[in-house]
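User: Before I run my own analysis I want an independent prediction to cross-check against. Here's the chain; please return only the structure tokens and, at the end, one sentence I can use as a sanity check.
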Amino acid sequence: MNSKHSPIGRIRFLSFLVLFLGSLCIVKLFFIQVVHSERYTTQGEGQYVREAKDIFDRGTVFFESKDGNYVSAATVVSGYKVIINPKSLVDTDAGYQALNTIVPVDRKEFFDNASKNTSYREAVIRIDDATAKKVNSLGISGLYTTQMKWRTYPGQTIASHVIGFIGYKGDDLLGQYGIERSYDKVLSRKDEGVYVNAFAEIFSHLGKYIFNGRGDEGDLVLTIEPTVQGFLEEQVATIQEKWNSDAVGGIIIDPKTGEIRAMASTPNFDPNTYQNVEDQSLFPNPFTESVFELGSVIKPLIVSAAIDQGLITPETTFYDPGHIIIEKSTIYNFDKKGRGQVTMQDVLGQSLNTGMVHLSLLLGHERMRSYLRGFGIGEKTGIDLPGEITGLTANLDSPRDIEYATASFGQGIAITPIEAVLSFSALANGGCLSPTPHVGKMIISSHDNSEETLVYEKGSCPIKPETANVITQMLVTNIDEYYAEGKESLKHYSVAAKTGTAQIPNHEGRGYYDDRHLHSFFGYFPANDPKYLVFFFNSNPKQIKYASQTLFPPFMETVKFLTSYYDIPPDR
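Assistant: Structure tokens:
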């Protein structure tokens, strides 16, 4: 007799089937009662009125303090909403009056909701537990509360362009800007829905544990330091208020690692109330999604290229007549004055356009273009923020000398601020670009709390280490001898820096505005072993012309703050 069809065989098969199904039920109960207990409780409170779209979970985003403590930047909180059941609400006016004594309610909206032919309308959302208890204590039929969850941003406007927000895209709640968007797959809990097929859930979780040890979901730790971010936010706001600027931005980055310690820009927004923002142009991050002609801050890149090629030294002389003619176009110094015989150090320290045009001719088209491309000009940095665009650098492919002449002092090419910051990092980092600029530091798995430190690609080296040393010393001399005649230099710290003032292009016509300027400023310190690189931009400050006036003081205040806050040892 075939054992398969024997009574013993059938008993064994049925026993195995019962054991398997029993095990399956036990595992499913484990997920219901332990893994998803809070979610099922939440759903149970409101399942008789509707399927709750607002009951969701999402990973927490943390800032990390210098001491290693985590500070919440974005999290999910639990609360309640007030529900109207029009079919059960007998006295609409009494219901409104009673509710309005506890929480303000728009009368017209309340009566509109109460008149609907449905059993579920939202009257008030996002109230706390104490308020919900007061509403329930009214004992009004047709008026009750149900639990909900929502995303909240404790810092309000702090780092809003870095964090972004979540919002509905159709029926899906997704990250819209900032790391909420770029890390949406990490922060989302798409497989954590209440109505999950038992087999699918069990085997999806088992797969994660067996093959990966964890899933891709988790909490996100940022490189942003909350105290430093707060300080930079204040500096940026002060600059805009003092000079009535259109927009101001600042960034603090470690040029050796690419970690962004702070990134602030204004005008900004509160992601908690993003839906109330009328001008949606406030949402994109200007560091990654806007381009500017930055002006003279580009000059150190050209000077370093000429040094790297052995064409000049800081002591090489040049006769400055105050203007120079290139292809029938006359290019002037910023004040239209000549200095006579000067050194390359003077060209950089006094920001002489004529000297820069001279260097563009010495380098030639191919070498100048190659160096600028090597510094990352015209390329995306790969930063872990969404929507990054590339600079407008088509002029570097032109055969005309005039395009290279203007590019040598930062006009005619437009780049993103983060693109500029990456290029400057090579000067501070021994000739090599920093690793990819980033704000994401670590992912903490939501399944087993394991920590995954994020790894970023190392940068290339467009100039030699000795070239970086020479240009750094030239930039230190800028601070010590040229800017404010050294009065603002720090006695015990060497600081390398360069200002930039550029005319703003007239996009409605041709050429540039005579009365609108873009100010920029970058620097790093301590110059001999840089810990931080700081960059500011200031768009269209009113009644002031030069970046040294609007950005030099806040830059130096930032240097003083960082050296004190991080207890950075002096280097001189």
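Sanity check: Residues 3-35 form one domain.
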